[in-house]
Specification:
This protein is α/β, with parallel strands linked by helices. The chain contains twelve helices and ten strands. The structure holds 5'-O-[(R)-(carboxyoxy)(hydroxy)phosphoryl]adenosine (KG4) and zinc ion.
Amino acid sequence: MIILGIESSCDDTSVALLDVSKDKHTILAQKTASQIEVHKTYGGVVPEIAGRKHAEAIIPIVEDVLHNQPKPEYIAVTSGPGLITGLLVGVEVAKTLSYLWDIPLLSINHIEGHVYSPFLEENHTDLVFPALCLIASGGHTEYILMKDHGDYTKLGGTRDDAVGECFDKVAKLLHLDYPGGPKIAALAEHGNSSAIPFPRPMIRSKDYDMSFSGLKTAALYWLRDNTFEDANITLEDFCASFQQAIIAVLLKKTENILSEHTIKTLLLGGGVSANTQLQTQLSHMLEKRDQPIQFRFPKKTYCMDNAAMIALAGYHHAAHNDTTPWNEIVANPNWRIAQI
Ligand code: KG4
Ligand code: ZN
């Protein structure tokens, strides 16, 4: 089954062509245009600019990806959640191609794309259920229980800032370029993670919800009230301590869920899944448990938004004939994969 994937929900315009069968898949082509350089100036994604950049980039990328390739049999497009300005561009292109080529359209939730991202490099049938998906990105931080393909239950999530957003905002306070997550992570490698006792919000709450805006404020107040020199603390120490506060919360909440549910796979996805400390500490925690749980996270290139993950998620919808007529698909910036 040849599937054309389209992703434009944030600041990456991505198109991919996948050849998927029941037990394997091949990425025939993929091209992504990142808008990071444009948004860097503003310290974050500017929705109006993002929409315009997606509109400029998308048609040449579709042409490039399809060059000398077989004709797609399905189109999988991200129709939510995300920035409406970006979603509209991808959805309109997908609708038009579906009508012109007379092929079915698959409406894909962006979070579901991240759920499948660890399997882009592996056999997608390796996903053993029930799986606990921790999706942490610039816009989302959620725990989702996945009992089967398409069977999602949200167990908890952030009540305010997403983890990636918290990384990016604190990086901005430190005058680091957008996106700040990778910059903080790189500096943290050379710092002492117990140098500053940053709060671990909601770590003791019995639910699986999280909150990161207080941590961001604690970072702001520390920078307002101290200088690195006087406190005898380096930028690297600050970054390591801040990052560890986030990881400690994610570790504890993950452990709580694993103790209270039967889980066979822990799946990490979203931009923050590129954080090697988070990967390592989750992996160590799993090794210490009596019951074996397989741990899956994406290869670095697939941690960020990409269209291949949307096409792979699309395959499972196509397999269940879950298509959407071109004149009925709607971009929904607030689409929730599963309600609590
Ligand atoms: O999934 P993604 O590409 O876009 C959204 O759907 O939001 O995630 C981007 C987010 C940004 O906030 C970025 O700072 C964060 O992922 N990120 C990281 C790392 N690499 C990317 N955060 C922490 N550590 C990293 N190594
Ligand atoms: Zn994403």
